[in-house]
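Deliverable D5.2: sample structural annotation.
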Amino acid sequence: MKIFEVETKRGDVLYGCLYGEQFKDICVIITNGTCGNIFENKFLQVVGEELEKNKISFVYAHNSGAFHRMDSKTANGKPNGCTYELFDNCVEDLQAFVTFAKESGFKHIVLGGHSYGTNKVIYYLSKSQKEKIDKYILISPTDTGCLKDHEQLSADELMPIALKFKKENKLDELLPIAFDNYNLFTARAFLDFINNKNAKNLPIYAKIGDWKQLKTIKQTGLFVMGEKDGFAFGNTLDHLQTINANSKNKNNVIAVIENAGHTFRNKEKELAKAILEFVK
């Protein structure tokens, strides 16, 4: 595995991790969810190693929401990371890695994302229909318009503070309370996370947003999720079938990993096997 850099059209540097560089037939690119990164997401390390063993290249592509904060080069001089991220930047983020794969000579590209990264992949594919992507993968796909109860309480607490910061022209200042006791946001990033309609492209529960983006995607997809993933609210199969029912292509593959959660802890090999079977 090697770490490399790409630069987005807007001038931000992002990091990628490449497995199986020498295998030029298929390149699977997976982008992270909120705060996700190659060091903490063991399941994607296992996926990369398994694909490489089977002569398939793999790129873990850090988007601008990787880690809480990244101090790599940005065009505006401000940090990257989910504390600061704006959803719409994902199009340029993913394009940078797709361009890398093409220029590196990979013949076939499979593009995927985990968690919040699935929403980014859907948005990217809907905006980049002329780009040659062979298949796509949604790992632990989430309805970002539907917050869990504790997340909603946190959002309700933060919203008036963020709106006050906006009124005071302090959008780029950190909010004083972490969202859901986990992630500090700037006011701008928090408002984008809550209100950006482009990210609400899997309206399974909240019915905020619509399915228009997904209905433009002609490629075949793999929709894979852990049986015990809390974002499926107790019915993972129904969760994935609802996504499939609202897809343009009805030949998608659905996979439920038994006894697995959102990050597939202790079930990494089962996830890797599902991805391998889909792409080979």
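Annotation notes: The radius of gyration is 18 Å. The chain has two domains: 2-144+203-279, 146-199.
The annotation will be released with the project's public dataset once the embargo ends.
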